[in-house]
């Protein structure tokens, strides 16, 4: 067990960092410091439970992420999971296994990142632990959320002849990562990516408001967050729901900055958009008759919304309709992206 | 991301392992396989949230634990945290970061251990993830629980002139660990420990029934589980509640097997009992007027209950009253045990 001094140091990173109001708003009766946290569940709501782990060199490289970014992103990835069920994030538990070579300053930065994200999304941090690891940082985060009873949106509710949408641009995180990776053997060094791509990789912005609207109004028939890439998430919906998804290349939201950066790197941005992952926008389906209402509401709220395709009956699969009207649709592979090798 | 084959392998360890009844009893609407689990909170109950991490070589050694034991114990440690609040364990999320050298058989055994413990305590496993680590196994477990609203028992409720109790013997796990450690440099090899000590180390039995009775009846004024050792947990109650705890050496529950084994090893069993830890029994306080009712009820339920001391007013501290009536009480150090060095 840690020494009394180590306990005091750990407490300085983790305890007393959130206001009584923040904790009360999240229904916290007992927070950090006892065997378990005690919280009051919200009346008329279901409880959501998500857990995501980030391992150094597997999920992130120190070369592309500041310590504070690692904390921020580990929590944000869980926020995105709650958003993908249509929920409001509430309580976080944070487990950090840290190499003994890390000094207190690095730990403080890591926890600053957790708390910055927690404050951003109104999350109460109520528990977890800090342990030593032999070599690599491992961060596991559990996040609870609430959704009105029976309104949680799974992956399996899509039907044929619905629209397929995303709640923001894709591929930015992969483009940013590409440009920040250390050069491989004999590799070219690409130009440093524009700030927007760097931020997309380091500090993703989960679609919490979009998810809550889609669930509360009963508009989304299926919903996934784009963590493993648009292709992979589309496949999950296709397989869980038993439908075919057809995406249209010319409707995929390609940001101008991504297009310009890909061109400077002589890369195809479509690869990043389909297989890049870590975009943390939402991919979902909705009935056609609700498309206009959704678009009107999202516009009023200032939230992006892109219809990128439609569902069809047939065996589970995902296809891309080319911009060229003469070409046939082509199947999209069920794969993610090898994050840490340059193409 | 894992390949489709790897996904299928992971699912074989984690999915479809619990009956629909088990999941329904725990209020699970959506379990493993979506972005987050969906569960219905229990009416009239507060929600408990605990998270504990076990790191290879820091919290356990492969020499003393089978793979299935690691899974069992990682979940049991969390069950004990829920018990220490007076709660009923409900939903587990399990994060495993596993060295790539582990084959599928070892992973299957690890998950067998998780599910054996889950089934033992009626817990629904609803999420988590499986990732690769570079060298060491890291297991992080989150467990939810339910306790009747307002009945959760913290560490801070003890007052002067109350009884101090434990819900089972202490020191067995430390004795078992001692006997299974690989010999140090030039070290003696102790006799292999008796089966009961080995089991106490590998498959601890958290005091869930005891905790629920103590909370439901409002009997416990404070409660901790003995994870870091009796001394350390007593200190936590003393400091959180602002009282002095006096333990009586002759009332500490010393099992005959532990006494005999300590004698064979020429060790002092008191060291294991006070500083050993990982006993996962409960240490708590209660008003004197309830002592008889508690003892009668525990006897009727077949549950152990030992009054080991009392609280006094005064600055926070923990003392041991010796068996020898002529000797003064001596202060108990606020420390745990260095698990992996032989004394």
UniProtKB/TrEMBL annotation, chains A, B:
<comment type="function">
    <text>Catalyzes the ATP-dependent phosphorylation of thiamine-monophosphate (TMP) to form thiamine-pyrophosphate (TPP), the active form of vitamin B1.</text>
</comment>
<keyword id="KW-0067">ATP-binding</keyword>
<dbReference type="GO" id="GO:0005524">
    <property type="term" value="F:ATP binding"/>
</dbReference>
<feature type="binding site">
    <location>
        <position position="278"/>
    </location>
    <ligand>
        <name>substrate</name>
    </ligand>
</feature>
<dbReference type="GO" id="GO:0009228">
    <property type="term" value="P:thiamine biosynthetic process"/>
</dbReference>
<protein>
    <recommendedName>
        <fullName>Thiamine-monophosphate kinase</fullName>
        <ecNumber>2.7.4.16</ecNumber>
    </recommendedName>
</protein>
<feature type="binding site">
    <location>
        <position position="52"/>
    </location>
    <ligand>
        <name>Mg(2+) 2</name>
    </ligand>
</feature>
<comment type="pathway">
    <text>Cofactor biosynthesis; thiamine diphosphate biosynthesis; thiamine diphosphate from thiamine phosphate: step 1/1.</text>
</comment>
<dbReference type="GO" id="GO:0009030">
    <property type="term" value="F:thiamine-phosphate kinase activity"/>
</dbReference>
<feature type="binding site">
    <location>
        <position position="337"/>
    </location>
    <ligand>
        <name>substrate</name>
    </ligand>
</feature>
<dbReference type="GO" id="GO:0000287">
    <property type="term" value="F:magnesium ion binding"/>
</dbReference>
<feature type="binding site">
    <location>
        <position position="225"/>
    </location>
    <ligand>
        <name>Mg(2+) 3</name>
    </ligand>
</feature>
<feature type="binding site">
    <location>
        <position position="111"/>
    </location>
    <ligand>
        <name>ATP</name>
    </ligand>
</feature>
<dbReference type="InterPro" id="IPR016188">
    <property type="entry name" value="PurM-like_N"/>
</dbReference>
<dbReference type="InterPro" id="IPR006283">
    <property type="entry name" value="ThiL-like"/>
</dbReference>
<feature type="binding site">
    <location>
        <position position="35"/>
    </location>
    <ligand>
        <name>Mg(2+) 3</name>
    </ligand>
</feature>
<comment type="similarity">
    <text>Belongs to the thiamine-monophosphate kinase family.</text>
</comment>
<keyword id="KW-0418">Kinase</keyword>
<feature type="binding site">
    <location>
        <position position="52"/>
    </location>
    <ligand>
        <name>Mg(2+) 1</name>
    </ligand>
</feature>
<keyword id="KW-0808">Transferase</keyword>
<feature type="domain" description="PurM-like N-terminal">
    <location>
        <begin position="33"/>
        <end position="147"/>
    </location>
</feature>
<dbReference type="GO" id="GO:0009229">
    <property type="term" value="P:thiamine diphosphate biosynthetic process"/>
</dbReference>
<keyword id="KW-0479">Metal-binding</keyword>
<feature type="binding site">
    <location>
        <position position="81"/>
    </location>
    <ligand>
        <name>Mg(2+) 2</name>
    </ligand>
</feature>
<feature type="binding site">
    <location>
        <position position="35"/>
    </location>
    <ligand>
        <name>Mg(2+) 4</name>
    </ligand>
</feature>
<feature type="binding site">
    <location>
        <position position="155"/>
    </location>
    <ligand>
        <name>ATP</name>
    </ligand>
</feature>
<keyword id="KW-0784">Thiamine biosynthesis</keyword>
<feature type="binding site">
    <location>
        <position position="227"/>
    </location>
    <ligand>
        <name>ATP</name>
    </ligand>
</feature>
<feature type="binding site">
    <location>
        <position position="81"/>
    </location>
    <ligand>
        <name>Mg(2+) 4</name>
    </ligand>
</feature>
<dbReference type="InterPro" id="IPR036921">
    <property type="entry name" value="PurM-like_N_sf"/>
</dbReference>
<dbReference type="Pfam" id="PF02769">
    <property type="entry name" value="AIRS_C"/>
</dbReference>
<feature type="domain" description="PurM-like C-terminal">
    <location>
        <begin position="160"/>
        <end position="315"/>
    </location>
</feature>
<keyword id="KW-0460">Magnesium</keyword>
<feature type="binding site">
    <location>
        <position position="228"/>
    </location>
    <ligand>
        <name>Mg(2+) 5</name>
    </ligand>
</feature>
<dbReference type="Pfam" id="PF00586">
    <property type="entry name" value="AIRS"/>
</dbReference>
<dbReference type="InterPro" id="IPR036676">
    <property type="entry name" value="PurM-like_C_sf"/>
</dbReference>
<feature type="binding site">
    <location>
        <position position="129"/>
    </location>
    <ligand>
        <name>Mg(2+) 1</name>
    </ligand>
</feature>
<dbReference type="InterPro" id="IPR010918">
    <property type="entry name" value="PurM-like_C_dom"/>
</dbReference>
<feature type="binding site">
    <location>
        <begin position="128"/>
        <end position="129"/>
    </location>
    <ligand>
        <name>ATP</name>
    </ligand>
</feature>
<feature type="binding site">
    <location>
        <position position="81"/>
    </location>
    <ligand>
        <name>Mg(2+) 3</name>
    </ligand>
</feature>
<keyword id="KW-0547">Nucleotide-binding</keyword>
<feature type="binding site">
    <location>
        <position position="59"/>
    </location>
    <ligand>
        <name>substrate</name>
    </ligand>
</feature>
């Amino acid at each position: 067990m840690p020494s009394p001094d180590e306990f005091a140091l750990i407490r300085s990173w983790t305890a007393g960092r959130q206001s009584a109001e923040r904790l009360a708003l999240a229904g916290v009766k007992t927070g950090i410091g006892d065997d378990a946290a005690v919280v009051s569940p919200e009346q008329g709501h279901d409880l959501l439970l998500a857990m995501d782990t980030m391992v150094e060199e597997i999920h992130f490289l120190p070369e592309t992420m500041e310590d504070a970014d690692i904390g921020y992103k580990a929590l944000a990835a869980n926020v995105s999971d709650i958003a993908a069920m249509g929920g409001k994030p509430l309580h976080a538990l944070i487990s950090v296994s840290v190499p003994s070579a890390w000094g207190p300053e690095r730990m403080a930065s890591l926890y600053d990142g957790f708390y910055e994200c927690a404050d951003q999304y109104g999350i109460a941090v109520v528990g977890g632990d800090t342990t030593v690891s032999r070599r690599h940082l491992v961060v596991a985060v559990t996040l609870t959320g609430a959704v009105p009873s029976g309104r949680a949106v799974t992956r399996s509710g899509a039907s044929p002849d619905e629209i397929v949408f995303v709640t923001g641009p894709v591929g930015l995180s992969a483009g940013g990562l590409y440009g920040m990776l250390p050069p491989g053997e004999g590799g070219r060094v690409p130009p440093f990516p524009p700030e927007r791509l760097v931020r997309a990789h380091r500090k993703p912005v989960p679609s919490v408001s979009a998810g809550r609207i889609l669930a509360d109004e009963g508009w989304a028939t299926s919903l996934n967050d784009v963590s493993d890439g648009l292709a992979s998430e589309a496949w999950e919906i296709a397989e869980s729901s038993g439908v075919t998804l057809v995406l249209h290349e010319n409707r995929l939201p390609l940001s101008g900055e991504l297009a310009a950066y890909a061109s400077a790197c002589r890369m195809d941005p479509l690869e990043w958009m389909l297989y890049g992952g870590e975009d943390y926008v939402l991919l979902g389906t909705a009935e056609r008759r609700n498309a206009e209402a959704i678009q009107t509401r999202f516009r009023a709220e200032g939230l992006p919304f892109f219809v990128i395709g439609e569902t069809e009956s047939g065996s589970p699969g995902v296809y891309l309709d080319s911009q060229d009207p003469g070409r046939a649709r082509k199947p999209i592979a069920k794969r993610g992206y090898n994050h840490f090798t340059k193409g």
